[in-house]
Amino acid sequence: MLIPALSLSERDRHAGRLSEHQMRFVYRVVTDIVEGLGEQFDMTAASRAVPPGAAEDAAVEPKTAELTDRRSLRIICFPAEDEVDRIRGRMLVQLLAARGHAADAAEVQANSDAAADLVRQRAAECVMISALAPGGAIAAREGCQRLRQTEDGFKTVIGLWNAGGDLKATQERLAAAGADFVTASLTQGLHKIEQFAAPVS
Fold it and tell me: What is the predicted pLDDT for the residue at 120?
């Protein structure tokens, strides 16, 4: 519900129907809702497959958090461009944290020097780039390319939230830039990251 609402608000802002002041109000309200929902998560049910403390172990001892059903991954979510991308990223991070992953939402854009520094400092195993379709695909591709040029050894998932139509051509371009998976769905993104977390047999 919140993602389509943000997309419509962003469209109205670009069309001149919402002022920057009104848009900031929308951001604030949606952020408050997202944070409120996060506080109400049933963490026990959401993280059933991951033992207590697994996320903390993954953050402190990067290579030792092997679990029976799956591992707890160290994940960083970067916005491709603006505040809308950041808010969507926070939604995903809440869901990942509820499943026991050491997930963080970064404030810096994916194509910045600071993003590569964070990936290196935190030894990230998975990087998520949050982008508003369709224009955000360009910024997401640039961010993915830049991160791949400076760091390696992590999986990359790009979320083109609320994208419609056939994504095949866009997925191919993003894959060429180094993306391991491209999706328009939070559910699909979560499922793919859970697959990355499955122990190697």
Answer: 92
Using the predicted structure, report yes or no on whether residue 154 has a pLDDT greater than 80: yes
Longest dimension (CA), the chain: 54
Q: What is the pTM of this model?
A: 0.72
Amino acid found at 171 = Q
| Residue 174 CB-half CA count within 13 A | 29
* Domains parsed from the chain with CATH numbers: 2-196 (3.40.50.280)
CB neighbourhood size of 89 (10 A): 27
Average pLDDT over residues 70-78: 90
Query: What is the overall mean pLDDT for the chain?
Result: 78
